[in-house]
Design a protein that fits this description.
Length: 209
């Protein structure tokens, strides 16, 4: 982790603590830091049409339970991802759908991380094209890739969100990133439209209650 990232982590951690004390400016700082990545994760599960509504439901719970959270910015990302995942799965149960990404979920063990094979895909994940390609992955790979490379969790944090072993998450992320690299090299992509994980303005705590 570089010096700039350390500084950003400390800034967000301080903002979380201030938001817990009712500081609205600090809450907006937290929201701006966390929401785009969280929304990208929710899109992985429920698709584009329902993602904003499900993310809003997640923020309602995040705001309601914020005072009870303990930890730093990294743990906060994991905590919010867990809430978002639960709200997404509740939504899918209500509408009788499976997660938006394709494939059957499988838990794989004992395969080395081998992150050196995934550099190209990791660097390209911020692009709309790469985010569209994630929808082609099996659900376990898509979730692992987004939690690790987009939300920013390590294998242990992602495993806690998914209820799996860290080794299984590392395996799924590695296989997913390797597949994404193959798709990117092969020129296979989506429509190139803007999926956008940006937003016009961050709400206050009162807005999302």
């Amino acid at each position: 982790m570089g010096a700039d990232q350390d500084t950003d982590e400390a800034r967000v951690t301080a903002a979380i603590a201030a938001a817990q004390r009712g500081d609205e400016t600090a809450f907006r700082t937290v929201y701006r830091s966390v929401h785009p990545r969280l929304l990208a994760y929710v899109r992985t599960l429920v698709g584009e049409v329902d993602a904003e509504d499900v993310a809003s439901e997640a923020w309602l719970q995040i705001t309601r339970d914020l005072e009870r959270f303990t930890g730093d910015a990294d743990r906060f990302r994991g905590w919010t991802a867990t809430i978002a995942r639960n709200r997404a799965l509740d939504h899918l149960r209500r509408v009788g759908r499976r997660p938006a990404v394709g494939g059957d979920e499988s838990v794989l063990y004992g395969v080395p991380d081998g992150a050196d094979t995934a550099g190209q895909a990791l660097e390209a994940l911020a692009t709309d094209r790469a985010m569209a390609l994630i929808a082609r992955l099996p659900v376990d790979q898509a979730e692992a890739v987004v939690l690790r490379a987009v939300v920013g969790l390590d294998a242990k944090g992602a495993a806690e969100v998914l209820g799996k072993r860290p080794g299984a998450v590392r395996t799924a992320a590695h296989r997913g990133l390797r597949r994404l690299a193959e798709l990117l090299e092969g020129g296979t992509g989506g429509s190139g439209t803007d999926d956008g994980v940006t937003f016009a303005a961050a709400p206050t705590q009162k807005d999302v209650r």
